Amino acid sequence: MIKFIAGLLIAFNAVSVTLSSEITPLPDKVACVVADRQDFQIPDRVQLTGWLGTRIAANEGNRLALVDTDRLLEGYRKRPGRQTWDGEHVGKWLHAATLAWVNSGDPALRAKLDETAAELCKCQLEDGYLGTYLEKDRWTRWDVWAHKYNLIGLMTYVRYTGNLAPLSCCRRMGDLLCNTFGDEPGQRDIINGTWHVGMAPTSVLEPMVLLYRLTGEKRYLDFCNYILRAWEQPNGPKIISTLLTQKRVEKVANGKAYEMLSCLNGTLEYYRTVGDPKILEACLNAWKDIVENRLYLTGAATSEYFRDDLDLPNAALVGETCVTVTWIQFNAQLLRLTGEARFAEHLEYTVFNQLFGAQKCDGSAWCNTVRGDSKKPYASALDGNCCLSSGPRGVALIPTFAVSTDAAGAVVNLYDAGTAKLTLKDQTAVTLAIATRYPADEQIRITVGLAGDKKFALKLRTAAWCREPSVQVNGQPLAITPAGPDGYVAVQRSWKDGDEVNLRFKLEPRVVVGDHNNSGKLAVLYGPLLLAADAALLGDQLKGLKSVALPSADLAALAVTPEPAPDNYKTWPCAQVFRVNAVPRQASKSGQPATALPIRLVPFADAGAGGSNFKVWMPIGQTEGNLLLEERESRSRRGNISGSITDGDPKTFVLTFDDKAAAEDWFAVTLAAPAELRRVVFVHGKTFHHGGWFNASAGQPQVQVQTAKKGPWETVGLLRDYPATTATSAAGLNGGERFTCQLSKSVEVYGVRVAGKPASGDAPLQAFASCGELLAE
Ligand SMILES: [Zn+2]
Prior knowledge:
Blueprint: H1 2-18, E1 46-48, H2 51-64, H3 69-77, H4 88-104, H5 107-122, H6 143-161, H7 165-180, H8 199-202, H9 205-215, H10 218-231, H11 239-245, H12 257-274, H13 277-293, H14 321-338, H15 341-358, E2 366-367, E3 373-374, E4 378-379, H16 387-401, E5 403-406, E6 409-412, E7 418-423, E8 429-436, E9 443-449, E10 454-461, E11 469-473, E12 476-478, E13 488-495, E14 500-505, E15 509-513, E16 521-526, E17 529-534, E18 548-549, H17 555-558, E19 561-564, E20 576-584, E21 597-603, E22 614-615, E23 618-619, E24 632-635, E25 654-655, E26 665-684, E27 702-706, E28 714-718, E29 738-756, E30 770-776
Parallel strand pairs: 6-10
Antiparallel strand pairs: 1-7, 2-4, 3-22, 5-6, 7-8, 8-9, 9-14, 10-13, 11-12, 11-14, 15-16, 16-17, 16-23, 17-21, 17-22, 18-20, 19-20, 20-21, 24-26, 25-30, 26-29, 26-30, 27-28, 27-29
């Protein structure tokens, strides 16, 4: 992999120097009412070659350039598509690949774009329809959604290539939508009977605003106004009104994050165009709510759905990449509209951690979801995987906001080696050459390139995590506190060619002590990077990832020290790992305090790169507590939800539901090494109308153990405090209730399970049980 990435870098540099002329995007016909405070940069102006540059080049060379576009077009050439949202991928690819081509100038990618855009347009039907559904199924499920992405992809292509041919295809799609949906007699209601309370189809707002601006046709703006009215219909998602009054995203419609953020990105495009300040207020309320209550430490904005405040389960669909990318777009939109550094701060954190954590380091594959622990589920086949075409869009957007311009001058948001060729508002050309190994080094040197002297502000984002940033201009230290009201340090002076700015962001370790689902655990960060323990880097002193604990939250005891990454983690030339003092999770039987064992943590972005298990949250201190924590779990029937009974979180329960009856169900945990058992605690999962508990009238649930590895299960006790349930009555049993079996003497075990007869509630043809957590001491 190292050689391959090095090869990519060389190819990437070669392309960037052969760029003959800058690309001028097609201008809009309609001017925006709200002027951007910070400008969207055309991706050829910002050429990055450090860590970000490596990931951007990998995204283009190993993913976007290699995607089988016949597969993307398949559902259009032969309707219906193989599944209901198969139509979204081609538009998402056109959007990402166009931005990537503008950045690299790669002629092969351009040829692929030309062919794919033309082939997609050929699939448009006479009336303008460009979805993957049969006529009889039109406008159900994800049909408008596919038109949204086709509009985004084709308009991005038209705008940057100047090839106007697909514009008529876009107009015909827009006209069809305008004619089909509306509140006039004979028109369809765009909300009625669609996914996520209408948020999926109405997210077509974003490209319809863009189509209005590009063509100047007022009917497209009328359609956007219709969408905003439809949101507030009795059956609508009430996005803006809820965000203005309740200020909480999980109260909006069904809380589905990807669709809601897609709608919000459209509303900001609408706000830019028509200037309704209520929309910006609603979006800022949403942003604040997400930042304060719904962000994972990895930078993921919620699980698949926005949930209650700080209800951030570690299992299930955590960190969907589509949500990560729409969250990046949302921050980038707010950065442009407000010019405030706080949005750039979140862009850096999300890109460096969650986005790169979802991208395979060589760019070839993506994860649908990425948790703070587990393995990275890298995949490269698009089938049914919305995130595989979303991830590349997020990476392709980086050059548009990494370095920018505003009314006062130039702005640096993300620090990476490279060059930004900027045009200030008065058309002065300024080049910023950035030399750095950041985030592997704290020194950043920016050299200003100018034709003559010019007075302007160079705005620098100083990282919120950095206690001691320092800035020097031509060797002279600069007082940098407090930063300006927009959050940037503005260096206002008359700049000359060759002026040099040296920044230093002291890179230091930090710890975050977990709460809620992560209480008793600790996470370690280093500068902007979240770190993780990785099974592939533990060595043989510790028995696997589950045996890793950290001695305390004291930074001196942890002694976090960066060092060059070993070959299997050399994901870019300056890649690092971080030595830290760990301790074995289980205390020794002798009661002797453990000696610290140095292990190496790895950036979350690189964790599990070779398929190993990793985890961000590590237990603090040694424990004689739950022997089963993070051990191997199983159950009699797989059930239909994904939770865990060994994650320390009783809320992430599992169940055995498969719509069938069963004489017995069990929940088991097997241990990697035998342990002395004295007490077992069973935590009930959840009571449903049709079951979820054990039927104690057939006998109290039994505690069973294996006394030999893979040996037979032997009953050693009962959950005597389990309530007097029956097949149909849960006897008031609630989720999270704990039941205990105390053994008369300790026994050495390889496995523990709780077994009993499942209950059927009000559906007698089936039965199932549930479990929130199984604990043992
Ligand atoms: Zn997705």
